[in-house]
Design a protein that fits this description.
Layout (H helix, E strand, L loop, with lengths): L13 H8 L48 E3 L4 E6 L1 E4 L19 E2 L84 E8 L4 E8 L11 E8 L2 E2 L3 E3 L15 E4 L3 E7 L8 E8 L2 E3 L16 H5 L28 E5 L8 E5 L21 E2 L2 E2 L3 H4 L19 E6 L11 H16 L8 E3 L5 E3 L4 H4 L19 E6 L11 H18 L7 E3 L3 E3 L1 E3 L19 H4 L2 H12 L13 E7 L5 E4 L3 E6 L5 E6 L9 E4 L7 E6 L5 E5 L5 E4 L10 E4 L8 E6 L4 E5 L4 E5 L10 E5 L8 E5 L12 E3 L5 E5 L10 E5 L8 E7 L2 E6 L5 E3 L12 E3 L9 E5 L9 E5 L4 E4 L12 E4 L8 E3 L1
Parallel strand pairs: 18-21, 18-24, 19-21
Antiparallel strand pairs: 1-13, 2-12, 3-5, 4-5, 5-11, 6-10, 6-12, 7-8, 7-9, 7-11, 14-15, 16-17, 19-20, 22-23, 25-30, 25-38, 26-29, 27-28, 30-31, 31-34, 32-33, 34-35, 36-37, 39-50, 40-41, 42-43, 43-46, 44-45, 46-47, 48-49
InterPro entries: Amidase/PGRP_sf, Amidase_domain, PGRP, PGRP_domain_met/bac, Ricin_B-like_lectins, Ricin_B_lectin
Pfam families: Amidase_2, RicinB_lectin_2
Family: Belongs to the N-acetylmuramoyl-L-alanine amidase 2 family.
Length: 900
């Protein structure tokens, strides 16, 4: 099957086909993070072929009947129960409710026609070091090679599960798919003999099976594996799960499957014709967690006891913390509900992140009572901080049998899914991860989780493999995982918790956090783009799925459908989101402008500006008829939009600098401040006017992107954006994560300057009187150099302004008729300016900004629309003949001019 095509398997084929191939993801997680805050998903003006994710609204836990609170209450346990043989002429009859367990994992082997236990020796404990790049072979599924989904956009020369077939229901609308419907029972073969087992469970449980038969090499001859579990006084329907886990590297071991607070489980293995199950074990894993109480809440919302006690004492009953909800809303009595949001300041030199939690009006941020360890205190991504191993780890877990191997040279990311239930609650996530650790440690023999990171359906990002955070950005010291055979030294693995090979799609929050985590890694590793490639075993994409055909390096290694078709369908979106997160406005230089009144002009369409739309007012005229007259809108809640330049007060904004370097921005017509609705920054958050209240929701940083300014909300790394990249009159302006598109770039032009357009002018340097802009040699040709020279009254030193927007001008030389131009529309500092035939491009449009006081004679600066950079005299030179260059605005006299 080619990547990007829909799965053509029929429903009838799924149990068999999935058995053979789909399961290799529950491989492992790992702690692969260190410091840096990647920000924000791809914004609205993205490529047409990348389906935008509308928002990252906090994901509600819709599993109201599920577990709402968990605690680390006891020592984890892993036990085995032997299967017994039974005729497989029909599915087992519905048993009555089981008796209460007699002890932890106290199992009872049962089944009709019992022929005794099949064997009692444990097997399937792989002893190869999966952390070695060429050892364990996750996802060795024989599948048709996938074609690459997109041609590489750029490259550099480096050195060098799919899922249980329990037929979930179609996903509900975003943000969270509905829980899977009950799986339909699968008919059992009539000619084979099944083996069955039942076992009592304790704690929040995970199960799996090991088995032996005559042919232990051909995956096509693997048996059918089915299970059901008893929970809430009722049996689930039978679920067909793959009997082989390709993460393990050989047949005979299933993936683990989380059954939560079920008290009993039954399983059967049905061999194919010509095979006999000679030995089989049911592996039951008690995670050390229990569901506690009936109070609403979750492991993400901290109890009074915090997390410390339960980490140190597994038998101390206390609610797990698992940190604050990644996108949890804080409630307040304010008419404008406020939500805590992350803001981060990332020093570019070190890549370290200093993250703080900010809250909106009348909101009290629900910060975690758990203090992260020193090594992870700065591990924050755009969608929230990374949950540490300590948060899911239970004291009493079996010790890791491998020491972390710190010789990775990560160049890319591989995306997986864990082939697990999709209807888990937020509270259950830590128990699920610890169950995976126990299963990987004791049954695979890996000693730890294979993935560096796991992302749950609520957007939580979890550290997996040990020491990944501590060594993530140490050169040549990234900790290897066990997530893709042959690629563990050169890539890191990130797994989505759930099964995505059928109809259930990952949630928006899961996509966002997966992208944020990858971007966080890439930024720390100085990887420039998720769309690039690197060289290792051929050409590899920077971000791809496990089953990419480029990973087929011999035999069946990495032949898998992982991470499932639903994730493959979203791989381009993930890459686009990663790029968006890598563009990090908080790390960009802050722009300081004098307090004053400005037009906010769009780089995407510099003839248009941001405004508060006018409203119609119906008034009685003298003759008694009704007439609608546009008036300025002064109401709270009026939204911002883009409109063609009018120069009216509703397009003018007063900027007032705040102590932290941000600005309050008030509309001149209404006196109201630009405000983020509900004090909450997220994609498509409404930007409107509101009565000034001096909160972060009304403060904005001006950030220099190098090609225009971002207006970044003080609530976080979100910027003002023209929704869907539209520039027509009336297009909405809202918040969105930075994506480097022109739809998010703006320029500021002073609104209190009258530009003379009806006469010739000279443009004189503020450095010295009579030193004016001049075209070298009076050239009439394209490319004539712009320089300074003593005033001589010639046409080569005279100019005429033409307004193309709100104080956006074209500057035409009187002698040549050509306009001042940036060669190649460059955005680089130091490029020398020239004259060129007018072509209407942004390379020839300049915003006029007041540079000081003094009324009409006050100096001004000219800023390029496309670059956001200013006319500049290198080193403040006053020497006649000095070429005028483009340079980042610095408010020095070398960038100031007087219009005479």
């Amino acid at each position: 099957m080619r990547r990007g095509e829909k799965d053509k398997w029929s429903t009838d084929e799924l149990p068999t086909r999935v058995n053979r191939c789909v399961n290799r993801v529950i491989a492992t997680l790992t702690g692969a993070l260190a410091v840096v805050a990647m920000m924000i998903p791809m914004a609205s003006a993205q490529a047409a072929d990348v389906a935008p994710i509308a928002s990252v609204v906090p994901v509600a836990d819709t599993s109201a009947d599920g577990i709402q609170r968990v605690a680390k209450t006891h020592k984890p346990q892993v036990e085995q129960q032997s299967f017994t043989a039974a005729p497989a002429t029909a599915m087992p009859a519905e048993p009555s409710a089981p008796t209460a367990p007699t002890g932890p994992n106290g199992g009872t082997a049962s089944g009709s026609g019992s022929e005794g236990e099949l064997g009692d020796d444990a097997f399937g404990n792989g002893n190869s070091e999966a952390g070695n790049g060429d050892a364990a072979a996750p996802y060795s599924l024989a599948a048709e090679p996938r074609s690459r989904s997109a041609a590489p956009q750029s490259g550099d020369a480096g050195d060098g599960s799919d899922s249980a077939s329990n037929a979930p229901a179609a996903p509900a609308p975003a943000p969270v798919p509905s829980a899977p419907s009950a799986p339909q029972p699968q008919a059992s073969p009539q000619t084979s003999r099944a083996v069955t087992v039942s076992a009592d469970l304790s704690g929040l449980a995970t199960v799996g099976v090991t088995w032996k038969q005559q042919d232990m090499k051909d995956a096509d001859k693997a048996p059918t594996y089915q299970l059901r579990y008893f929970r809430n006084n009722a049996w689930s329907q039978w679920i067909t799960i793959p009997s082989i886990d390709d993460d393990f590297g050989r047949i005979g071991l299933s993936p683990s499957y989380y059954v939560g607070d079920a008290t009993k489980v039954e399983a059967q293995l049905i061999p194919v014709a010509g095979q006999t199950i000679t030995e089989a074990k049911l592996i039951t894993v008690d995670s050390g967690y229990s569901a506690v109480g009936d109070a609403q809440g979750s492991a993400y919302r901290n109890g009074n006891k915090g997390d410390k006690a339960s980490i140190d004492d597994p038998y101390a009953v206390g609610e797990t913390s698992a940190v604050r909800s990644d996108n949890a809303a804080s409630e307040s009595d304010s008419p404008r509900p406020a939500t805590a949001g992350w803001s981060a300041n990332t020093p570019a030199a070190s890549g370290a992140v200093s993250a703080t939690l900010t809250s909106g009006k009348s909101a009290s941020a629900s910060a975690s009572t758990t203090t992260p360890t020193v090594r992870t205190a700065a591990a924050v991504t755009a969608t929230g901080r990374i949950h540490t191993r300590e948060e899911w780890w239970v004291a009493g877990n079996p010790a890791m049998t491998w020491k972390p191997k710190r010789d990775g040279h990560w160049k890319g990311a591989i995306v997986h899914h864990t082939v697990d239930r999709n209807d888990y609650t937020q509270a259950e996530v830590p128990a699920m991860i610890n169950g995976i650790y126990l299963f990987h440690n004791t049954q695979r023999g890996w000693g730890d989780i294979g993935y560096q990171l796991i992302v749950d359906r609520f957007g939580g990002i979890w550290e997996g493999r040990d020491e990944g955070v501590a060594n993530q950005i140490v050169p040549a010291s990234q900790v290897e995982g066990a997530q893709a055979s042959g690629f563990n030294r050169d890539t890191f693995g990130i797994a989505m918790l759930g099964s995505y090979h059928l109809d259930v799609a990952p949630t928006d929050a899961q996509i966002e956090s997966t992208a944020a985590a990858i971007a966080w890694e890439f930024r720390a590793l100085r990887i420039p783009s998720p769309f690039g490639t690197f060289q290792f075993h051929g050409t590899q994409q920077r971000v791809t799925g496990h089953g990419d055909a480029s990973h087929y390096i011999g035999g069946d290694l990495n032949h898998t459908l992982c991470p499932g078709q639903q994730v493959w369908d979203r791989m381009e979106t993930i890459r686009a989101r990663v790029l968006g997160y890598m563009i990090h406005p908080s790390a960009m230089a802050a722009v300081n402008v004098p307090n004053g009144t400005y037009y906010i002009n769009s780089v995407a369409k510099d003839s248009s500006s941001i405004e508060i739309p006018m409203t119609a007012n119906t008034a009685n005229t003298a003759n008694g008829s009704n007439a609608a007259t546009p008036v300025y809108n002064t109401a709270d809640g009026a939204r911002t939009q883009l409109h063609s330049a009018t120069g009216k007060p509703n397009q003018q904004f007063t900027f007032t600098r705040q102590p932290d370097g941000s600005y309050e921005i008030r509309n001149v017509a209404s006196g109201k401040a630009l405000d983020v609705a509900d004090d909450r920054a997220w994609n498509n958050a409404e930007v409107r006017q509101w009565t000034p209240d001096n909160t972060a929701a009304q403060h904005w940083f001006i950030r220099d992107s190098g090609s225009g300014y971002y207006l970044q909300s003080a609530l976080g790394d979100y910027v003002l954006d023209l929704s869907n990249g539209r520039t027509a009159d009336g297009s909405t302006a809202a918040l969105y994560s930075a994506n480097d598109s022109a739809a998010q770039k703006f320029g500021l032009a002073s609104a209190d300057i009258a530009i003379p357009t009806n006469r010739n002018v000279r443009i004189e340097s503020a450095l010295r009187a009579n030193l004016v802009l001049d075209i070298y040699g009076g050239s009439m040709a394209n490319g004539g150099a712009l320089q300074i020279y003593g005033w001589n009254g010639s046409g080569a030193q005279q100019y005429r302004f033409r307004l193309v927007g709100n104080n956006v001008v074209e500057i035409r030389n009187v002698r040549s008729g050509r306009v001042i131009d940036v060669p190649g529309n460059s955005k680089a500092n130091g490029v020398k300016l020239q004259q060129y035939a007018a072509n209407g491009s942004s390379a020839q449009h300049w915003m006029v900004r007041r540079a000081g006081s003094g009324g009409a004679s006050a100096p001004v600066s000219f800023y390029g629309v496309a670059s956001g950079k200013s006319f500049d005299l290198p080193g403040g030179s006053q020497r006649p003949g000095t070429r005028v260059q483009l340079y980042t605005g610095n408010n020095t006299v070398a960038q100031q001019w007087r219009i005479r």
